[in-house]
Each structure stands twice: as structure tokens, then as C-alpha cells.
Amino acid sequence: MAKKTIDQVDVAGKTVLIRVDFNVPLDENQSITDDRRIRMALPSIKSVIDRGGKLILMSHLGRPAGDGFEQKFSLAPAAARLGEILGKPVAMAKDTVDEDATAKASALKDGDVLVLENLRFNAGEKKGCETFAGKLAAMADVYCNDAFGTCHRSDASMVAVPQAMAGKPRVVGHLVAKEIKYLSEAIGNPARPFVAILGGAKVSDKINVINNLLGICDAVLIGGAMAYTFSLAQGGKVGGSLVEKDKVDLAKELIDKGGDKLHLPVDTHCGDDFGNIAGCNKVIVANGEIPDDMEGLDIGPETAKKYAEVIKNAKTVVWNGPMGVFEKPPMDAGTKTVAQAVADSDCISIIGGGDSAAAVDQLGFADQVSHVSTGGGASLAMLEGKAFAAVDLLDDA
């Protein structure tokens, strides 16, 4: 699945269109509260401008209606922040493919940078519209995908634009190249033992992932609220825990299919007031014995210890979803123990974006794992074994 990268293309004097992920959080004053996504795009950006290319950046931000400009979703703050980081002017188009964007794209000189306005201001982006894509494609000589978080989508900027640029170089940026390397190699050719850790709230969100990983992993460790649906499937008492009663039969099937590979919690840390976890009554009980007036909020210490032992011997670990309510101590204990085990292991460790990435970051382990994915939904889709049209149609290395 190795793809040609932006570094392997001669960009001098050429216009390069990069799909980045500048979907940064903004406060009520349109100020960026976390610029990591902009900083993570810098290697690909610098690869172009340092070699004399002309650069056009396109991205979405938030969920605009798709019928024109909305101030609160403008990419102008991202363009301004990028200019500050680069220490040079960054042009900002007032539109995406209309008069201002095309005029500013045509005026670019070698080493210049232009940010187009939010792609999703145009309904054609989400619809994968070929006409909209054709206008974007006409601006550039080279296409580069550096937005892994949307690689599982069929948005125009991800699929129709590179299709419209057939015959021109179509490559991946540094971020996407790294994601493909870690995630596709982990699934296709993992060092063993290969252990998957799956948490989060819903079995339904991860059915296909669990199914796929049970076929290729040596062990699958289950935590988070989804564990209570499995507990219900085993005839356990789950109290007021978050469960999907309509997924109990499915959980039974996964238990039967998983056999010794599927590891479920043996104990649970419960509380009687989710809104006041620090001050509520708490108790640790055996799996399937949650009192009626309580709910499971974390894996228990015995489970955490068992999971840590499995992780200790692993050579590859993929983790998607926390073990409990990691934002609220003491229900962060299970996630913390698992994170510590992953950090201490000499395995290749891949954290699958979303809440898992937030957990390892919040708990201080982000720099002790091999790779933290930039796309929760995309990494899940890749773990399911799904093909990505947005990547497949790019030039092979």
C-alpha cells in the first residue's frame, strides 16, 4: 500500500494542491484553542515551499450548512496562525473555487502559500461533486493528500479532485504516509504477539473492528462501557451501566467466535453518581455483579493487572477506546494502568485517535508510544480492513 510522497515529486515552479486537516477548535472569539493540526501539516507544507513550489491548501472546518460563507467556520484564523508559524505572509481566499480563489491562485509566486476558504461552504464538497472538484483540480499541477482524518470519506477534495487530476502527480503527505505505514503494516504484517485493546461506549461502533481483529490478533482486550453489553450477554448484572440491549445476541456471537482470544473484564469499578464521580459512593465488584443502584465506570484493578500482563509480552499493540471514564479520577485508573503497560513495553504501539489519543495525551504517555493516529474514524475504518478510495487512487511508490 506504499504510496509516492510529496518529497518524491519535483515541485519547483509548480502549483501544489494539498488537502490538509485544519479543522481546528475555535472559541467564541474565533481564536484557535489548539493549533496541533496546523503544526502537524508543517513537514508537507515546508517540503513544497522550501523547494520553490507554489502552495494551495484546502480543508474543511466544522459543520457548515453548505450553502455559502459562515463566519464562525471560516479558515481565516488558521491561515493567520500558519503565517505566524512560518514567519511569512499566507494569502487567504474569500471563497473556494470562485473569482477570488482563482485570481489569488494565479498570482502565486514560487514559495508562496494560499489557503482556500472552507471547502464545506460549497455543497459540492460533501456530495463529491465532479464539477466542484474540477474547478479545484484546474488550479494545480500536483495533488497531495495529507488529511488522514478524512481518508475514509468520499468528499470531493479526497476522491473527485485526484480523479480529475489523473495524469498529474497525485501523492501523500508526511502525515498520511506515516499513518499508512503504521496502520497497514500492523494489520497486514504484525510483529507477534499482536494485541488489540478496544474500549469506548458502544459495541455497535466497533462490531466490524472486533470481527476483523479476532481474525488477525493473538488477543483482543475489551474495556469501556461496551464491556457491559458483553457482561449482559454472559447473564451478568449490570445495574445502571450503559448497555446496548439490542446488541446482546451479537455480543454472544463475538464471545463464541473469540474463544480464548477475547479477554473480558473480571472486575468493575462502579459508582452511583456519574455527575459527581469524585464524591459519589464507589465500589469494586466482580464482573457481572454490579449493584442495581450503581453503574460500571472503569475496569477494575484485577482486570487492569491482567491486561497489563498480556500487553507486556506483545510485539504489536493497537489501541482504540479508553477503559473507563478517564477524564474523571479515580475512574481513570484502568486506562492509566493500560497506558503505562503500553508505554513500558518494547512493542510497536499504535493509538487510534479520538478518545484514546486524548487519554494517552492527558495521562502523559503520548511521547512513549510509537504512533498516535490523527484520525479516529479513519483509523477505525482501516482496522476494519476497509479500502480507502482516497488513498488507493494515488500514485504507488
Automatic annotation (TrEMBL):
Residues binding ATP: K206, G296, E327, G353, G354, D355, S356
Binding positions for (2R)-3-phosphoglycerate per the UniProt entry: R37, R120, R153
GO cellular component terms, semicolon-separated: cytosol
GO annotation, biological process: gluconeogenesis; glycolytic process
UniProt keywords, alphabetically: ATP-binding, Cytoplasm, Glycolysis, Kinase, Nucleotide-binding, Transferase
Pathway: Carbohydrate degradation; glycolysis; pyruvate from D-glyceraldehyde 3-phosphate: step 2/5
Protein name: Phosphoglycerate kinase
Organism annotation: Rubripirellula obstinata
Gene: pgk
